[in-house]
Design a protein that fits this description.
This is Zinc ABC transporter substrate-binding protein. Pfam families: ZnuA. By secondary structure, the protein is of the alpha/beta class. The protein has 2 domains: about 180 residues, 3-Layer(aba) Sandwich (Rossmann fold); about 120 residues, Rossmann fold, CATH 3.40.50.1980. About 45% of the residues lie in helices and about 10% in strands.
Amino acid sequence: MSNRVQLPAVRTIAAAFAAVTITASLASCSATGTDGRPEIVVTTNILGDVVTELVGDQATVTTLMKPGADPHSFSLSAQEAASIENADFVVSNGLGLEEGVAQHLTQVDAAGIPHFVASDAFEPLAYTEGDAEGMDDPHFWTDPARMSAVVDALSSQLATDVAGLDRAALDASVADYAGQLDELDAWMQDQFDTIPSASKSLVTNHHVFGYLADRFGFTVVGTVIPGGTTLAAPSAADFAELSADITTAGVSTIFADASSPDDLARALANEAGIDVRVEPLFTESLTPAGGGAETYLEMMRANTERITSGLAP
């Protein structure tokens, strides 16, 4: 999903050595935690929150991506790599989202550690434009219905592959959370229905709301960064083209990523030469306590309110 560069020889050798070390460790270290509870390691904090909601205190859940981090660029420390080496169960997003963790996930699979890949639970959408055109979009969580499908598949694999979980307690947690997702989906639909059809046009920082657009009937006019990753960069021609599209569509608000500088979005608003607001959204990461998106459900509600406020008359 990103532009790849050739690593210098020293870094390549170091990465190869690390991969060999991880492979050896993974083959021998998977075990339950010191307190007897199973160890579950999750790559992204969005999925980490969901897993925690499902298993409660029945397992130790370690989330690798810190609040506010970018899933496309975060990488692991030696201590975090060790947490994967000792995992009983690993949960990842898939579809290339966790680019800096891909090597470690490959080693997890090679060692036979149970590994749930969220994107295996639904039919992915493909990007229709930009540098990633034709590639699968990993940002499924912007659609609560697809998150429900992930929760359903995840709960089944947890019950099968994680020893020591109380099945009745797990089923109760899953049913409760599934109900909250259904309520979220219905509430989001009600909110978005207040936006006139002609105003349901999204311009975002990068391609992250394709699933939301598909679920709730929005049109993605374009993105400030032309691709499915934050690691790309717009050209002057990209800016000029998107500026024209914004003007044509009568877009009133550009939505930027709350965890990243909004300089590019504001430059685009100036380029368009019209009165366009720049509104931050929580796109790919939860926030620290007090940040407004501490959980997946909070993030989705906050984004829905901001999109509705930005586009409704």
